[in-house]
User: Fold these one by one.
Assistant:
Number 1:
Amino acid sequence: MAHGGAGAGGAEVTRQARAVRLGPRSLLALVLVSAVGVVAFTWPFLAPPHSTVNAHAQDAPWLFAGLLALLVAVVAATISESGLGAKAVAMLGVLAATGAALRPIGAGTAGIEPMFFLMVLSGRVLGPGFGFVLGSVTMFASALLTGGVGPWMPFQMLAMGWFTMGAGLLPGRDRLRGRGELALLACYGFLAAFAYGTAMNMQGWPFLGAGTTTIAFDPAASVAENLASFAAYCLATSVGWDLGRAVVTVVLTVTLGPAVLRALRRATRRAAFETAVTFEDRRPVNRPT
């Protein structure tokens, strides 16, 4: 077993096994769907005024929602095919069910959404490939559980996949432990909670329609004018919720993080994801007499 360098307490740290190792095909699929996702979220700032896209401003969110649903499913299937074994599927099911059950707590009131801290810690321990699938599946399951199915759901699945995958890409996965790791995860969770809220604002903002309010998306306005309107929209509608989500994520990461990280790492070691499952043949052997 390979070993990393000394951790925060000076002890050697065993290299953490990944539940899913991204191969070239799954990595390419992930990059492509992320690129399409960026366009799907930011198209109001990419399409010039009076363009064909802006002429169908009310239809574009629905079209992108359908496209993202298909692409996220393709990426999840590709990653699963590349190495999501039976033990990883079991871990995925447990964590996704736990995250989906945590989401209704607070119902998003004032940003009380404890599932985000679990996604951060799970992505950190289990890696970016598993993290993307976990974030997407958890958001899908929680939408079914809470009745939150709509054109926003594929955007939520992709944004949560990015959110959880990002935690798996943080540095020092095999070496950093203790307070340093908690500080890193808390900072990431704080910033990523705002990024998630901003991304989902981009998804919902075009639905307002020009003329309904002064902070609505206007297809005929310039990029600068729409950026100013979007900033005002975020300040007026979501800063309080995003701040609450960020603070709750930090508090839970600092207080519950050590115990949850130990539990996840212990489960990962016992699962031995990188060891193939074998079955022993226990059929009786007929020996010659």
Note: Confidence is low (pLDDT under 50) at residues 1-12.
Number 2:
Amino acid sequence: MSLRQMEYFVTVVQEASFTRAADVLHVTQPALSHQIKALEKSVGGALLERMARGVRLTPMGRAFLPHAELAVRSAAQARRAARATAGAEGGELHVATLHSLAVGVLPDVFARWRAARPRVLLRLHEYATAEALEEAVQRGTADLAFGPVPADPPGTVVPVGDEELVLVVPFDDRLAGRTTVRLPELADRAWVRCALEPVVQGERFLDWACGRAGFRPRTAVWTEHTSTAVRMAAAGVGVCVASADVVRGAVGEDCAILTPDPAWKRPLAVYARVPPTGAAEAFTNLLRTTWPTPPAPSADQPTPARVNPAYSSPGLCDEPGPVLPAPPR
């Protein structure tokens, strides 16, 4: 069994055709068929069922596929890491993150990176939830991930900084002149919520958080994306919760931003299956050095609440993890 044979197998599965796979791999179809048969002989059974139109996986093939995919991705990742370690002056770097962080945080970081290392190609992989992001890292899809601290770290985890989550209301809202608000003050308001809102202790996040504040939220609209929820909130449909970076990038001055009291913070990190080296290490250092340092709380201002990683779950809107203090254990 060879890495090339596994690459051929994965490509045939992806293309669902020997003919198309041969074109993608730039080999003849007889040569491709020969390598697949040799692979099947080495594993002791058929991996693919040849059909009149295309191919499909056998039960043995379904069991073999995820391991073959991981091997192929790991080999490509190893080649990139080796080239990057030689000075981070060439090759490419695959970065996985949540869609919300890609919109709100990474554009400025990518611009700085391109100015410093224009020969390193960046490939961005975006995911809707932290669970999907962590799974992508486990599969070897990217060289590193940038997101909430994973509940089950795959390997190396490098803290970057805290992300602030805020409440969004229209600029002419009765609360718009304030900077902070306590959740019970919003008991009479409608809310714009996201389909990817997490479940905390058997409840959706906002139901759980508002329940702790003594009321049930009244939902006006369900959306699929954070940026849509922010636009809806800015138009006056209802209050929404989102990353401060996404809010500023999505609507600018068209809305007012309120900080919950106590403030909601979420630690972010870069994580990977192996310690970052070369370009991956340089990108991690860039994130850490450019991340804004929050001012120290004053004597009369409580320290912001931090996320308890033990309660991580799919995102608040697009971002995962409850942002209120975790309940007592």
Note: DSSP finds eleven helices and 16 strands in the chain.
